[in-house]
Amino acid sequence: MKSDIEREEWKSSSGFILACIGSAVGIGNIWRFPYIVGENGGGAFLIPFLMVVVGLGISLMMLEFAVGKYFRSSIVKSLEKIKNNLKWSGVFIACVSLAVLSYYLVVIGWIGFFLSSFAAETFMEFEQMTDTYFSIVSFLVVALIVMAVIGKGVIGGIEKFNKISVLILISILIPFSAYAVTLPGAFDGISYFITPDFSSLYNPKIWATALGQAFFSLSLGSGALLTYGSYLGKRQFLLKPTITIISTNTAVSILAGFLIFSLVFSNNQSPSQGLPLVFNILPDIFASMEHGTVLGAVFFSLLFVAGLTSAVGLFQVPTASIQESLKTSRRKATLIVFGLVVAIGMPSALSYTPLEIQVNQIKFLDFMDDIFGTYGITLAELVFVVSVSWFMCKTRILENLNKNSRFNFPDWTIYVMKFVVPALIIFVIIFSAIFDNA
To answer: How far, CA to CA in Å, does 279 sit from each of 109, 266, 344, 345, 366?
Structure first.
């Protein structure tokens, strides 16, 4: 076995951009974003969200790309090269990515259930599904699909898959959103979505939630962006791809908002129903609409593709880390990650079956989402930013951020990352914990 693993590179710049768009654009944009907006006053939420995306998202995404590109390594090895003990920070981030993936695949499996249900014109409600063991079967099938993509490598698997999938996603989302806004009552939904209540901006909860959703939506904190950045060629500049990725990701979220709120308001439903919005409310809406089975199949196809592209990014993080740390083949690393995902994710899958596995009277999947989806990703981004901004040479960071770019980030950018970003993330974690326990 060679001491160093030969590292692949993206075949094209467009392949890299589409892969990153696929990692960022997921069910968080189409499922999570609309219900978060609905729970936080509609248009009032968009202002802090967009401010965070532009104000912090660009620099933090570029930081992940720059570190990956410079060290050409996984999250574990990249942080270890900064300082030996920081490898445990990388291990923590890879473990968070693995934990999120373990229950994320279960949710994608549910989406697959509704997709097959509408496609076969045999509509079943979510509660009917949980009375069966379909959640386990769909979880394993989705995990196998993602493993197969990762197993084919960066060019033959990840790049090729995302080139096709992202284009499919956009080709479904745009015309479907255009159709939804023509429905009776859709204008009320759009108005709710884009009209801000400026008084709500004084509520710190909205700002805290916006920061968390921005990180979730942009795939910050999972290590996926750093990992994808590690396959870049040395001459690739970062600012233009970053702006393209963030713009596309944000546009998808906005289009998803038009789509979801148009459907919800046109059917006289409440926009602030939270998590059940997609799995309990929308299937009922499609079931009652003319041509609803076709529209339902199209919608859940959109959601399924979006989920898979993000899952591929999450899966690659521990795979690359294991491959480099153990100096093993991609095939073996992929099989190890698959085994870990199944072992960790099986309780989440079983929690929505007749067995109903719970932790402190909370379904295991909901428990995992509370711990890792709410706090884990945000804490992982905190660990990454502190590890890089406090221990990596400031000059080296700026050189890699500004390399091959006409625009240069000023020196004070490092101090923002070193002090302001960690303070904001800590605020989000503390405030979220206080709010959840209130």
So the answer is: 12, 18, 23, 20, 14
Distance CA 203, CA 272 (A): 17
The 3-state DSSP class for residue 49 equals helix
Residue with tokens 């999947």: 365
Q: Is the pLDDT of residue 2 over 50?
A: no
CATH number of 13-437: 1.20.1740.10
Give me the pLDDT at residue 276, please.
Answer: 55
Backbone angles phi, psi at 358, to 5 degrees: -130, 160
pLDDT tens-digit series, residues 69-78: 999 999 999 9
Give the tens place of pLDDT for each residue, 360-415. 888 999 889 878 876 888 889 999 999 999 999 988 888 888 877 777 888 888 89
Q: Which two tokens stand for residue 134?
A: 């379909």
Nearest residue to 299 (alpha-carbon basis) of 280, 286, 284, 312 = 286
Given a cut of 60, whether residue 5 has pLDDT beyond it is: no
Residues 6+ apart with CB under 8 A from 325: 74, 76, 77
Q: Which residues touch 419 (CB under 8 Å, ≥6 apart)? A: none
Tokens of 130: 């949980």
Interatomic CA distance for residues 94 and 221, integer angstroms: 10
Mean pLDDT of 252-266: 89
Strand partners, 359: 362
Q: How many CB atoms lie within 10 A of CB 318?
A: 29
Domain-wise residue ranges, the chain: 13-437
Residue 223: closest CA among 21, 377, 57: 377
Q: State how far Cα 217 lies from the chain centre.
A: 5
DSSP annotation of 232: S
The pLDDT score that the predictor gives to residue 30 is 82
Total-model pTM: 0.89
Contact yes or no for 329/90 (Cβ under 8 A):
no
Average pLDDT over residues 264-289: 75
Nearest-CA neighbor of 93 among 216, 224, 232, 209?
224
Distances (CA, A) of 235 to 13, 224, 405, 406: 11, 21, 10, 14
Helices (H) and strands (E) in the chain, counts: 24, 2
